[in-house]
Structures
1.
Amino acid sequence: MLYPQTNQYRSEISLDGFWKFAMDKTNDGETKGWHQAIPAEYDIAVPASWNEQHQDLTRFFETGWYEKEMFIPKIYKENRIFLRVGAANYFSRVWFNGVLMGEHEGGHLPFSFDVTDHIDWNGKNMVTISVDVRIRPDSLPAGEVENEQIIQKNGHKGQFPRNYYDFFPYGGINRPVSLVIVSETFIQDVSVRTNTVGGTDGEINFSIKLNQPFAGKVTVKFEEVEQNLYMYDDETIAGKITIKDAKLWSMENPHLYQMQISLTEEDDEIDRYILKVGIRTIVIKGNQLLLNGEPIFMRGVGLHEDFAVLGKGMHPAVIVKDMNLLNWLGGNSIRTSHYPYSDEFLNYCDENGILVIGETPFVGFVESHYNPEIESKAKRVITEMINRDKNHPSIIAWSLANEGNTFVPSADDFYKSLYNHAKELDDSRPITIVNCLDVEEDVALKHYDFVCLNRYYGWYTQPGLLDEACDLLSEKLDRCYELFGKPVMVTEFGADAIAGMHMDPPELFSEEYQAEMITRQYKIIESKPYTIGAHIWVLSDFKTSQNPKRVILNRKGLFTRDRQPKLAAHEIRKIWVQ
């Protein structure tokens, strides 16, 4: 379903705010409502993770129950109404007035259910959502895997909670919840592909999908260019529009055209949707990444959806602050490490010319994950991600995995299959995965369009030996290009620094060591003729599971968790802001 909007034919009722909440340690997701067995224990805010809202929820990693009552105005009786959840981590079931609407697995993409036939128009309606955040080996991202050889540079086995990755497994409804009101026949999906022709003109190929067969007129309008198409009991229709002297979407001028789509039945307009479209091209040519035919270098950061109290809860102020800090640094790009980010975040990037590598939640796959069940589940997530995000001009590439074990034979076909699946869905963007160890024995990178590396020379290896670490980084980058002959991007490099810790000469965990390591290594990466980007790990400190290598937070941030700069932020700004 398209991202909600309000106009003459569509509306949205926000259900954000305070909900009733209860813990369920029996994890009985089949229950039709908590009130049958579980009394309400808390008021809780949505959207936000539950872990930091109440002290006794901090370590709660089982099933949480949410309930909220609302009236629905009778003016919507002739419409179809969907309950939409922006994202809930991890496994969700939804009831409406006691009737199970459906379920969804995955913590970072939206889901919706048609509740039209179950609405009480004369009284209150009840939404009940159970969210099971138990950490399992087959979750995406994964929980701890028993009897598995550890290949990660840092190793997360045995930490608490027992997730298998280096960020906190927040539970709850983390993105907005709403009732989406549409016409009986409505525009369900739109897909656009843009190109340039003749040097100056923009070409938009589009397809439109309705929720049911429709006989009538479909009008597509780009500013002054208008096209009328006709459907004869069809559900889909496609077309092409050319914009003369098009304004291309770019980092400097992120122009967005308004693509207005209208349905008209017997002279009556019944639905309208406006999609913002950026006309741009993105291709890899030789050793370069070209945006609108011009080479670009992605300088930026990794980050997390993470903030005190909110956890992974979506809040517009946090998005604005983080992207303001990226702009202050002089950065131009981010990777959605390590999962798809919110619709709202991507909309902001579209509007502000920020380049995005959209990433799946496939973090730390190990050999036992390379089986048909996980492959099928992974392909479903890739499909959901690309279907949701395909129209964002800011997304210039897909990353299908981060720091997996790509050194065992079974990884070869597994990652090739994921690549082929994603390419079938979207062949307009380059696709990558991220390697975290030496590439000599890697069996998966060969299948992808460019190579991404996470490298921590001077931190996890060569700690304190910056001269040796920098020489090794340069040597290993050259070897990677020699092996694969593809553009290379370093998607993570950095060091922990505890804010206020100073040492002269620089030592581990001091602000001086972090600043020197990042600035020296960035210059090495940028100097290579085959590199297309360098992302510092990470924008700001973030919460992790309890681990003897982590002092409550991962402290590799250029900024503290409350977004105050460390020395490294000032030093990298001197390089990036010319």
2.
Amino acid sequence: MKWQLLAAAAAAVLLATGPAAAQGAQPTAAEAKAFVEAAETQLAAAGEYAARAAWVRANFITEDTQWLDSRAAAEGAQLVTKLALQAARFNGVVVDGVTARKLKLLKLYLTLPPAERPGAAAELAFLSTKLNSTYSTGKFAYKGKPITLNDAEDVMRLSRDPAELKAVWEGWHSISPVMRPDYARLVTLANEGSKGLGFADTGALWRSNYDMEPDAFAAETDRLWKQVEPFYRNLHCYVRAKLNAKYGDAVQARTGPIRADLLGNMWAQQWGHIYDVVQPTGGTASYSLDKQLTVQGYDAVKMVKTGEKFYSSLGFAPLPETFWRRSLIVRPQDREVVCHASAWDVDSKDDIRIKMCTKVTGEDFATVHHELGHNYYQRAYKNQPTLFRGAANDGFHEAIGDFAALSATTPTYLQQVGLLQSVPGAEEDIPFLLKMALDKIAFLPFGLLVDRWRWQVFSGQVTPETYNDAWWKLRTQYQGIVPPGRRPADAFDPGAKYHVPGNTPYTRYFLAHIYQFQFHRAACKQAGWKGPLHRCSVYGQKEVGAKFNAMMELGQSQPWPQTLATFTGETRTDASAVAAYFHPLDKWLTVQNKGQRCGW
């Protein structure tokens, strides 16, 4: 039935593009509008088919499901590329604002556009699926048995043995060298497709998704980084001193970069797991969310139910019954699955789901609130036309859930949902803010550099032979970290991060870490909150929820600054909300770092 719809829609496109096209006549505004409407019909049908194929592959990783997913992705990519090239026929045609925006978005629809030549889409889809699956099924030998990334992350989180951390870090990074030739070929193919659509390269295509010129967007991210960089350097300086005190000069020097495997996370992108190492003297928190969840009998499903309750308290409708039947919430023991947490909108209507191998931890408690944010956003814009069913920009999609998680991680909220009996006093503000900064602030340079590296790869500035050297140059420049040992000549360490083989643009996460605080500041102001920003929870604030939902319902129907203004009253991304949230901690860190040689 899906392919019958596609055939019918394809016929409609042929009608919409002729006979003027055949005669070489100037196309009209009416023809442009008809073309867009027919294209949206095709995209809706192909999108659902591809989503179902991808869901099956992600939940049952076999050669057959990979083949099905690859084929669906190839056919979908081929369709979108064809439509994007046809959309170029209407360049220069004066059309209404809605049609003009849809024509633009159509050209930006694909992350990796294939060239319009036989075999290009199939090869690109095959490589994309292969890279994704290589990552998702990756295992390495540790203590005589193969372990997965989930197992390795547990070691990185809990171990304080530098030799063990180094072994596990290097073990996981050993799964990715095999990806390098496939990734290099994928870059070549994607660039060929991007140039066919009129972009300099695929990086320029990605940067064109923000209602500004690609170079202007790159400059905008530089501006935002300069707003938060001093605070990051303050945090880095403090953490390095604590690691030096813990491990000694032979493991972590008092000056220079930090060893990447000592930070509690496989990619050193979040440092919250080493709070026990860097906590202030006498700064032990009066509670552990991990322990509270266990003591109160939480399991994975109850965590998701609690996340739903948060959104319901804002006035949002409950999740559909199908969500609970179709989501993957616990890692199955009988098959390989993609465990990386994700939210799915299968039919662009009501078939929303999450897929994550949930653990009963404070980290996953926040992740649940984050992933559900995607689902509620997807449902909010479902009544928009197909090409407007998306975030105002991709940073919004990530920030929606992170905004919810900012409330969900406060002691205020934990008391509201019964996980705490009382809210700790002001004496626990610095420990709380330090824990938050170890995740939120520590992430910012990593959130920026992943795509900085890919922009350089796509532009040809970085070649396959220098992939790894360029990766570590950026990681040291922005994060101030280095690998735990000399890297092998064939290393492809970018491939050890899901979003690189998964071909997911990453700047969205950097933006989300700014937007979430803008949303939080605006919401707390609307709720009449008078206390410190870091103690504010908007749980139960239905008026805030109604205004927030009104922003989400707009989808991608207008430039994102206008959408941002509907909720925050601001038209520019602004990291001052980050500074306001963490101001007490930044002052405290400055005092703690007195006498240290900060920087690297």
3.
Amino acid sequence: MWWPGGISLRRRAPGWLVPLVVGVLLAQMAVAMVTAAVQQTPTIDEPVYVGAAADYLHGYGLRHNPEHPPLGKLIVAAGVAFSGARVDGADFAGGQGAWGRRVLYGSGNDAGQVLLAARLPVIVLTLLFGLVVFAFARELAGVWGGLAALALYAFSPDVIAHGSLATLDVPVAGFLLTSVWLLWRARTRPRWCLPLAGVALGAAVATKMSALAAVPVLLGLAVLSVGPRRWRRAVLGAAVVAVAAIAVVWAAYLLADPRLGWEPRQRVPVVAGRRGLLVALLPFPEAYRDGMRVQFALENHPWQGFLFGRVYDGSRWYYLPAALLVKTPLGLLALGAAGAVAVLAVRRLRPVAPYLLLPAAVLLAAAMAGARDFGTRYAVFLPVFAAVAAGCVLAVRWRWAPLAVGALVVWVAVSSLRTYPYYLPYANEAFGGPAATRRHLHDSNVDWGQDLGRLADRLRARYPGERVWLVYKGSGVPSYYGIDARDPRGVPVAAVRGLLVVSDSAAAKARGRLAELLAGSREVDRVGHSITLYRR
């Protein structure tokens, strides 16, 4: 590409340069994710997934966590198996959270070692999805577009944060992008790409049920890829994708429990009406359908949210767009929006518009309609798709496009590096950076229980021997890390003296006794941008 008076992108890069840049970008992402994985203690959801992974490994079947299909937890199980974790729970009768904590803390295991091992497969998968981002964008906008897209992906704080955890959000986003890319390639290579797209789609659906919202869209894209004028072949192509996806879901359940011996340990709600009919029609194992019923019940729960300093009941349709404005680097916001315009405005890019824009839009709409305003992790697919779209800006015939894209990519990189290694509470510069995230958002946006180990180190280093009162929001066990603390909410306010340590999510929604305690306290220290220490 050549812009008069601008920069030529037609010059062929040396054969060694592109692999080197790809390697460097993925290496820095790997360092960021491994560092976060080593330093962070369990987030709220991770013990549940580690416990379910242990169930699969030791033949306990599908007894826990039916609300999420097993594939993501099977990926986690690969790491748990490598750790050699000891598990004894054939007669365990507690809930999934208690079981996960028993695996990590109550079975004689090194909790940090088991957790790191569980996180490593997700880290590897996140890096592989980076190659998909690069390949997709390179097909659309050339090598430089691919490198720009990969850089935006590799420096995305949300992708790094959740790609370093033993959770399901980045895997489902990556599988969906892979399926979309393969459907795009099926326009010229349908024989191989359609079945593989179905496998990737099935992997997404077998990882998290929120991927179901994308199924009709991707089946429509399969028809589009074959060509709607050849309607018989198009319908057959969509059928191939659907059958492959269904097969992957069944295979995941059979790997988790070859007997499919589904015996739920929790009450499965009855779902009637259109939702009940939808669940009954799903061509999946009964455990999957019961998981859908549990998800619908969770959607009916009266959750609380927090946005820009305000606590509210229920959900707000604008929560996710607002949270994404806070949590997405400004350079990625600008380039993602410009890329969306580019794929609509540039003639040769218009065919890819439904592939890039429609799945992301439908998934975002479905997430916005949900009842749980808990974080941008529910929309972590957006920076993934936005990175590919952003690379398309380099296909625009504007002489300053390379300089503008390069400058914005560097801005994203600097913003990401400045937050290292605290990626989970990241906020962009317009909202004050990670130190200010707690004023705007809560839960997995800032404080998901990840800094309990850092808190223990801080207390030993700066406050040895002091009386500690702790209000911790998370799944970790404070005593395991050497924290000797009491909950201040069960004693008179006047008795709470010394250090009051409060997770920022708990402080954001403080009411009653906790609000009274905070009002009479003085902030003295902070840990990881997610836990605040007060003096009373």
